[in-house]
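Q: What would this chain look like folded?
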Amino acid sequence: MRDEYDIEKLNPRKNPYAKRLKQQVTINLNQETVEYFKALSKQNGIPYQTLINLYLKDCVDNKRQLNITWE
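A: My prediction, written as structure tokens:
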């Protein structure tokens, strides 16, 4: 290896996965919701956090709207 590299001569490429990067967040979910996704994860062999992400991504892709009414 060289002691120094000339950065100007390197061929910088854009990260092909940049659009797929995930952002870590902290979210509070009720226990029933977590247990539901954990059960699904055991059935499908997919981590429960991945399932939650897939579900939310589907909501985004299909522009699903919640119908919230307060009584």
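The mean pLDDT is 90.
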